[in-house]
Design a protein that fits this description.
The protein is α+β, with helices and mostly antiparallel strands. The protein is built from eight helices and 13 strands. Helix 1 runs parallel beside helix 2.
């Protein structure tokens, strides 16, 4: 490229909450989202919770004229829900599925079945290589007693590591998604500190939308109001983060959020407000340094805090593994006793009054408990390994930060 070229990139990010047969007015909302994207003409569109691949295909057909390039990331049982639409050719893609993602027996939450992941698309615009990441982290169902905090911190750590290790050849890094964390939460501070990503809301020269940039607001008809009682304005959990890696400078000229219902309609696009950013990219004189991020003493404190929370989760997982193992052992002993009693009864006369049916039912019950407890023991064993591995990685990272001159 000659001279000192500039580029303006318009990015759209939305958690769509589109679940076939479950989401309210899903087809109508998907149509409204498609109409808006067609009308606004963004450069990049990042979507989460597009659980129905048919909805993605419908959007792909509708938006093909405006966004000729797209990719849908498949993972888990019902899918990652992640997809990207782009005006520019997608050179490559990559999907990383987080090692921890809640519990399979928490059916009412369902995060485990989604295969929560981070998707990467690499695009080239005017000779500038963009690494664009889209993700959706585990939800926070109860802030006062957040049982999923260790899992979400593992996801934030893996996301930060994934970005750092895959973006070395990029000129600009963009991350959009539902991170399910407040701006001051340790997971956000860890992600931003470890990667050096900037928050478009904080850096924006001009902002327009919901107060404080909130994307989950109580006046949304699809939002669970109970979790927002301590936050009358709502919470900001959807982000567009960015960073220039090589000889470029990125600035956020404008950030917007949607506000309530779609224009002329009585229904919003989703239970989350969309985030829209206009980024200005310009070449600078010399390459920008690639560092861990912010001031390292502060980053060391953040890593220490995150490691402590992961350690708490590790202790809980170890107790759950022990409890499920003990339950499996007791079920095995009960099964052996029932089998022994049935063996004795089989050798007796058919007319013996002892109830064989009771021991058969007991044996079936013991088998069911044994299978369930064994499955839980194996799951929590894997959970312990993942938490221990992340805790060890954080320990090594912390030592490297502390040993730096």
């Amino acid at each position: 490229m000659e001279g000192n070229p500039t580029l303006r990139l318009r990015v759209f990010d939305l958690n769509c909450w589109a679940i076939r047969y479950l989401s309210k007015r899903r087809q109508e909302r998907v149509r409204l989202i498609g109409d808006m994207l067609h009308r606004e003409d963004f450069d990049l569109v990042l979507l989460q919770e597009v659980w129905s691949e048919q909805d993605y295909n419908d959007l792909k057909v509708k938006l093909g004229g405006c966004y000729p390039f797209s990719h849908y990331f498949r993972s888990g049982v019902i899918g990652s829900g992640l997809c990207v639409f782009s005006k520019f050719p997608i050179l490559d893609t990559l999907l990383y599925q987080y090692s921890l993602n809640g519990y399979p027996y928490m059916l009412q939450h369902g995060d485990w079945f989604c295969g929560k992941s981070v998707g990467l698309v690499i695009i080239k615009i005017s000779e500038i290589i963009f690494n664009v990441y889209v993700t959706h982290l585990h939800a926070e169902y109860c802030r006062e007693k957040d049982a999923y905090l260790p899992h979400r911190l593992v996801q934030a750590w893996e996301l930060a590591q994934f970005i750092r290790h895959t973006s070395k050849a990029a000129d600009v890094v963009l991350l959009g998604g539902d991170l399910n964390m407040h701006p001051e939460d340790v997971g956000i501070r860890l992600l931003r500190g470890w990667t050096g990503l900037q928050d478009a809301f904080v850096e924006a020269a001009h902002f327009e939308g919901c107060e404080d940039g909130c994307t989950l607001v109580p006046n949304n008809c699809f939002t669970d109001k109970s979790g927002l009682l301590p936050f009358p304005l709502g919470i900001r959990i959807d982000y567009i983060l960015y960073k220039a890696i090589s000889s470029y400078v990125v600035k956020c000229e404008e950030l917007k959020t949607t506000k309530g219902a779609a224009p002329g309609m009585d229904v919003p696009f989703s239970d989350h407000e969309a985030v829209m950013a206009t980024l200005h990219i310009q070449r600078q004189g010399q390459a920008a340094g690639t560092t861990f991020g912010t001031a390292e003493p502060t980053l060391a404190d953040v890593v220490t805090e995150a490691r402590t929370e992961v350690g708490v989760g590790l202790q809980v997982a170890q107790r759950q593994r022990y409890s499920s193992g003990r339950m499996a052992l007791l079920a095995l002993l009960l099964l052996l006793q029932a089998a022994a009693a049935l063996g004795v009864l089989v050798g007796m006369d058919a007319g013996h009054p002892f109830p064989k049916l009771s021991f058969c039912l007991l044996a079936f019950l013991a088998i069911g408990v044994l299978l369930l407890a064994t499955g839980l023991h194996l799951f929590h064993t894997m959970e312990v390994k993942m938490l221990h591995g992340t805790e060890e990685q954080m320990r090594m990272a912390l030592r490297a930060l502390q040993e730096r001159p």
